[in-house]
Amino acid sequence: MKRVVFCDFDGTITAVETFAGMLKEFAPQLSAELMPQMYTRKLTLREGVRQILSSIPSARYPEIIHYAKSKPVRPGLSELLDFLDLHHVPFILVSGGLRAMVETVLSRAGTRGESLLERVTAIYAVDVDTTGELLQVISEFEGDTELVAKVQVMAQHPADEQIAIGDSLTDLNMALTAPIVFARDRLLEYLDEYHKPYIPWNDFFDVREQLSQMW
Questions:
Q1: Are 149 and 126 in contact (CB under 8 A)?
Q2: Class of 3-214 per CATH?
Q3: Where are the domains of the chain?
Q4: Rounded distance, CA 198 to CA 168, Å?
Q5: For every one of its 215 residues, what pLDDT tens digit does the chain have, with 9 covering 90 and above?
């Protein structure tokens, strides 16, 4: 494979923090305690997110899905997917959040009236078992610090040119591994710490424009 794009979901595809916002909504006390520790890397994402999710009653799962329904998609995603289709480049969505939330947001119509969900090559995210009293986390690619180890996912899709798009701590390992990185928000600061080059972006029109120039 010549090229492949790996894209985060929460705060990247969505214009607002959708998964993080849900955790604050459904587990406010634990989120207030653990999220600052995760952002300062005193607590791993793997430990923190698992603790918060595992504290939420399974009975509230339908509310969680409903919470995601109205969250806006960042402008330009349909147009970026059009561009990638034109160049036969896969678009791999990698999220440390819940798969059902990702699918709920992407199932909404794109600019051409189609479901964006059908246009994504693959989705890697967290699943949950709702049969018990509390949510039970299931992740196929759990790693040292992440519930979904994005570098492990990248290894499933080797390419001459791997491109990462992200916005926060959950994307740091992916961004440090990918040769080309589109970064915004908190991810900018983390990458500056590591002196890792990146391309700043605001919406997916920016990403399409930069890739168009590069290719």
A1: no
A2: alpha beta
A3: 3-214
A4: 13
A5: 799 999 999 999 999 889 999 999 999 999 999 999 998 989 998 999 999 999 999 999 999 999 998 888 999 999 999 999 999 999 999 999 999 999 999 987 566 666 888 899 999 999 999 999 999 999 999 988 899 999 999 999 999 999 999 999 889 999 999 999 999 999 999 999 999 999 999 999 999 999 999 99
